[in-house]
Design a protein that fits this description.
Elements lengths: L3 H8 L2 H14 L2 H15 L3 H6 L2 H9 L8 H15 L1 H10 L4 E2 L2 E2 L9 H11 L5 H14 L2 H16 L1
Helix pairs in contact: 2-5, 2-6, 6-9, 7-8, 8-10, 9-10
């Protein structure tokens, strides 16, 4: 099972992890930022006001320091979503195109759409590997399984496991 913590620890090196968490601070809903700020302040014994004044890079580093804490999982999930929708949407669009899923710039707009099969995921990953780094592909597929439904997990996580093992 690929949890947000496992994805961040095993599929993202420190530099990529920082970029993902910066995407959270730049693009997440204000309410999510307020919640994580309060939780970070409590966990780190800081004042909320002090945390709010920090640059996004420093806030990303502080959030990274809490990756092992399950209380921060929801924020890591949001960070993965923000990173992919804002910084990796071309790669997401390429995968969705290969699977015949209607989307707008990598974001699925339809309520009902076909789920890819493991074979389709494996084929798309192989086709797109010359364009995109294997680590980025594994990260996207792991996050898609985490953030979507059981059908997605069954299709993408076996391919993530294969990429991670190679």
């Amino acid at each position: 099972m690929w949890t947000a913590r496992r994805i961040m620890k095993e599929l993202a090196d420190p530099g990529l992890r920082r970029r993902i968490l910066i995407a959270f601070w730049r693009h997440a809903e204000p309410s999510s930022k307020l919640l994580v700020t309060a939780q970070l302040a409590q966990a780190l014994h800081f004042r909320d006001a002090t945390l709010r004044k920090l640059p996004v890079e420093k806030k990303a580093d502080l959030l990274a320091s809490r990756i092992g804490d399950p209380d921060f999982d929801q924020f890591l999930e949001i960070a993965l979503m923000q990173y992919h929708t804002h910084e990796k949407n071309a790669m997401m669009a390429a995968f969705l195109d290969r699977w015949g899923i209607q989307h707008q710039n990598g974001s699925i707009e339809a309520e009902d759409y076909p789920r890819p099969t493991p074979e389709q995921v494996r084929a798309a990953a192989g086709e797109l590997e010359p364009q995109y780094d294997r680590k980025d592909i594994a990260l996207y597929l792991a996050a898609a399984g985490l953030l979507m439904d059981e059908g997605w997990r069954a299709a993408v996580w076996p391919v993530v496991d294969e990429i991670a093992a190679s």
